[in-house]
Amino acid sequence: MDNKPTGKRLLFLDHYAALAAEGLAMRELALLKCRELGLPKLRCESDSAILIKAINLKSPLVGLYGILADIFSIATSFEFISITWISRERNRVADELAKNVLSSKLTNKAATNSV
């Protein structure tokens, strides 16, 4: 039996990877960095409706439990925090920046591994 992902499975994996990337970006680039800078108030925006809903309802998502638990915990360090959904159109600049950073990191990692 061939265990290669096909059609719907690949779509699910792509969707999961994007959701995980959004969660990691929020945890690492927003919450942790802003806490490190000592900012008392924070407004986070994302075009991932599923992630925003899970965070605001404190609802676990399979496979993202650890990331979400970290977000819930870190969020308590702010005097005020707002986590809201915005349209993909309004989030275009952030998406492009994230893709460029990820692409750069993957390129650097591949170069390091080939040496």
Automatic annotation (TrEMBL):
<protein>
    <recommendedName>
        <fullName>RNase H type-1 domain-containing protein</fullName>
    </recommendedName>
</protein>
<dbReference type="InterPro" id="IPR036397">
    <property type="entry name" value="RNaseH_sf"/>
</dbReference>
<keyword id="KW-1133">Transmembrane helix</keyword>
<dbReference type="InterPro" id="IPR002156">
    <property type="entry name" value="RNaseH_domain"/>
</dbReference>
<keyword id="KW-0472">Membrane</keyword>
<dbReference type="InterPro" id="IPR044730">
    <property type="entry name" value="RNase_H-like_dom_plant"/>
</dbReference>
<dbReference type="InterPro" id="IPR012337">
    <property type="entry name" value="RNaseH-like_sf"/>
</dbReference>
<dbReference type="InterPro" id="IPR052929">
    <property type="entry name" value="RNase_H-like_EbsB-rel"/>
</dbReference>
<dbReference type="Pfam" id="PF13456">
    <property type="entry name" value="RVT_3"/>
</dbReference>
<keyword id="KW-0812">Transmembrane</keyword>
<feature type="transmembrane region" description="Helical">
    <location>
        <begin position="64"/>
        <end position="86"/>
    </location>
</feature>
<feature type="domain" description="RNase H type-1">
    <location>
        <begin position="14"/>
        <end position="100"/>
    </location>
</feature>
